[in-house]
Amino acid sequence: MTPLQSALARGKAEIARMLIERGANVEAASDGSDWSPLHYCAANDLPDIARLLLEHGANPNARLANGDTPLKMAVAKAHDIVAATLRDNGGLQ
């Protein structure tokens, strides 16, 4: 797991923000995982960090091996603000 993914998986928004602002790869998936940082935001209801990732070039349509996008995950978990953020930035289910 990358440091950014670790921060996101644990809901540590301020650490994630610091890492992103200091150049963390907003697309990096860890070894053995296909989750993008946006998938972690969708799963953990982190709309502000999702917005920051998108501002730094994160792909709103990254797909897991099963085809799930961050938007699909946010909708399934009823994380409405993350879902709206993703939709506003071109996210598809």
UniProtKB/TrEMBL annotation:
PROSITE patterns: ANK_REP_REGION (PS50297), ANK_REPEAT (PS50088). Gene3D superfamilies: Ankyrin repeat-containing domain (1.25.40.20). SUPFAM superfamilies: Ankyrin repeat. It holds the Pfam family Ank_2. This is Uncharacterized protein. It comes from Capsulimonas corticalis. The lineage of its organism: Bacteria, Bacillati, Armatimonadota, Armatimonadia, Capsulimonadales.
